[in-house]
Structure formats: C-alpha cells, structure tokens
C-alpha cells in the first residue's frame, strides 16, 4: 500500500512520515509506504495524469486541493480510478494550513488514516480536520 502526498503538500512531509511508518509497518506486518507525487511523476504533473497511475497502484493520496473534490470531471476521475483521497481541510477558506498544522493533523489522524487506506473499499474521500477528526465525503 502506498500513500502519496500531492504537489501542494510540502515535499519533506512524505519522507518524514515514511521514517515513522517504516518501523510501524515492520511491527504490524502491514507494508505501507509514503511517497511524494512529484518525486515519482515529476513536478507539475497534472491531476489527470497521476490519478489513473495511482489508481493502478491501488494507492491513496493526501491533498490540500479542495477543488479536486469540487470539479465534477476530477471527482469522476477519482471515482473511476478507485482512488482513496484524504483532503486536509483548513479552518477557513482564507487561511491556509501551515506546515506545522499539516504535521499536527496527520499525526493525530495517522493510525485511522492508515487503517482506512488499508481496509476500506475504494473509491473513498475523507476530510481531515485539525482537531483529528475524519469526515467521510463519499
């Protein structure tokens, strides 16, 4: 199982979470890798290009791109390629998320996020909130 972070997530978060997840995967026997989309598919890779590729890998993606869940053609693409998506949600539309807020969100939700990524049938979409709550979208 691979969990990708997309282009709008700072590139150093994926290797950081991989450092933590690696020993955890050994402990649980559930192999989970964390990778950054630009490192695999190149920087600026279009959603229409990486979504089908992640679908082939039976992967999930973590994103801050809330528009990905609002553009009808992209929602169809996510669902058609059976992708699991976690949307990091800021508290307001005007304020984004700082790197530390993203780390906090992911640290609070990581065990649940991995559990969903490993066990839940795709496609699915969840909002990830700063308070550590996950809200199912589809």
How would you describe what is shown here?
The protein has a single domain (about 1-135), classed as Rossmann fold (3-Layer(aba) Sandwich), CATH 3.40.50. Helices cover about 45% and strands about 20% of the residues. The chain has helices at about 15-30, 35-40, 45-55, 70-80, 100-120; strands at about 1-5, 35, 60-65, 85-90, 125-130, 135. A 6-stranded mixed sheet has the order 2-1-3-4-5-6. Strand 3 (about 60-65), helix 4 (about 70-80) and strand 4 (about 85-90) form a beta-alpha-beta unit. The longest helix has 21 residues, at about 100-120. The relative contact order is 0.17. The mean pLDDT is about 90.
Features:
Rossmann fold, 5 helices, alpha/beta, 18% strand, globular, 138 residues, 6-stranded mixed β-sheet, 6 strands
CATH T-level topology: Rossmann fold
Specify the CATH class. Alpha Beta
Radius of gyration: 14 Å
- Which structural class should the secondary elements be placed in? alpha/beta
Q: Identify the overall geometry.
A: globular
Strand content: 15-25%
pLDDT averaged over residues: 91
**Distance between the first and last residues' Cα:** 20 Å
- The number of E-state strands comes to 6
Strand order of the largest sheet: 2-1-3-4-5-6
The tally of structural domains comes to: 1
- Give the low-pLDDT segments: none
**Helicity, in percent?**
40-55%
**Count of alpha/pi helices:** 5
Q: How do the SSEs run, as a string of H and E?
A: EHEHHEHEHEE
What is the CATH architecture descriptor?
3-Layer(aba) Sandwich
Instruction: Summarize the main sheet.
Output: 6 strands, mixed
């Amino acid at each position: 199982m691979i969990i990708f972070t997309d282009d709008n997530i700072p590139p150093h978060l994926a290797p950081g979470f991989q450092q933590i997840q690696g020993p955890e995967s050994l402990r649980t026997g559930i192999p989970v890798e964390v990778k950054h989309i630009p490192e695999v598919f190149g920087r600026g890779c279009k959603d229409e290009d990486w979504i089908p590729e992640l679908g082939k890998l039976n992967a999930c993606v973590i994103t801050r791109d809330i528009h990905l869940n609002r553009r009808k053609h992209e929602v169809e693409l996510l669902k058609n390629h059976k992708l699991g998506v976690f949307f990091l949600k800021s508290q307001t539309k005007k304020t984004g998320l700082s790197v530390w807020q993203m780390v906090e969100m992911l640290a609070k939700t990581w065990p649940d996020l991995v559990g969903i990524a490993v066990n839940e049938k795709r496609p699915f979409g969840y909002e990830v909130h700063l308070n550590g709550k996950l809200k199912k979208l589809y």
